[in-house]
Amino acid sequence: MTTHITTDNPVRSDVPTLTPRPARPSRSWAFAGVGAGLAGIGVIVTSGMVNAVYDEELVGDTPAIAAKLADQTGPMFAFHTFAMVGAVLTVVFAAGLFRRLRATLGDGSTAPLVAFSGLLGTAVVTVLGSGLDTEFIMALVDDPEMVDPANAALFNHWIGTIPWLWALAGLSGLAVYVASRAAAAPRWIGRVGLVLGGVTLLLGISPLQYMAGMTGPLWLIVTAAGFALGDRAFRS
Asked: pTM of this prediction?
């Protein structure tokens, strides 16, 4: 009869097994949100500076409106830059916020997805709000005669309204509030979402929808700064 004995002899039995240390949660996404909010304010300010169509002295005079727009291409270029940078940073913040809320709420809650979707929708609206820029700005710079005055007036209306539609960001604010009620986010950030997010959503639903562009970026800045600088319990 043959007997087999199996032994386990590690090469270095005196070396302890090392367990990888979890990586510290990154705050880059939250700082991206601060940048997105500041860019949002830049969008509102610069689009407001393109005001030829709102000049009471030029009402109904589309050639004069087009001529004045040709002198406002500087703010238009700034508007376009703020809009596109802000849209990109908003998507980054939306992804980080989704991951942050899901980490504490789990997969069973819809709040992380609602928060992400609202911000993603806002970014898409911002991109569409700047979608006619190349068509009109370059023509106004190179050859204003190529631009139909009526179309130029419509372009001014477009950038003076569409980028102000921040209603869906308000929905994201309310989603953060719901998450905070489940202790998945700091309570004060949740209250900011309830107040500023709620006001933004209500303004967006109302006929005063463009006013949402004034409260939405403010909610985004405060919320993103809160997660970047005040979310110590989660990061530890």
From this structure: 0.86
